Amino acid sequence: MDISFFWIGIGLAALGYFIGDGLKNFKNPKGSPSSYPTLIKERDLHLYLGLSKEEVNELLTKYPDAPKMELKGTTYYPYHYFLDWLSSKELYKR
After folding, report:
1. Residue partners of 38: CB distance under 8 A and separation at least 6
2. Alpha-carbon dihedral of residues 82, 69, 56, 38, nearest 10 degrees?
3. CA nearest 36: which of 48, 44, 45, 27?
């Protein structure tokens, strides 16, 4: 009889731990992972910007100061910094 109460106690403790761990970031949306990656490879940039590959290549050629980083020979673009940089540029002059 004492052993069954032991396992019930262990089960309740585990249940409390997992519920508490799940509620940590319940009201903190920035604590949850984003659906967009932090770094995007240059070859995949057009997918996230909604542009063609040619348009992205033209943009990167025209603006070589775009925020980027190179790791082991691969160029990555930080997604949120790149969007902030892109919105600050006047790409369409009237």
Report:
1. 78, 79, 80
2. -50
3. 48
The letter for the amino acid at 2 is D
For CA atoms 64, 56, 82, 73, give the dihedral sign.
Answer: negative
Structure tokens at 73: 């020979």
CA distance 49 to 56: 8
pLDDT of 24-81, one tens digit each?
Answer: 766 665 555 556 678 899 999 999 888 899 999 999 999 888 899 999 999 999 988 8
Give SS3 for 53: helix
Q: Using an 8 Å Cβ cutoff, are 31 and 24 in contact?
A: yes
Is 0.85 surpassed by the pTM of this model? no
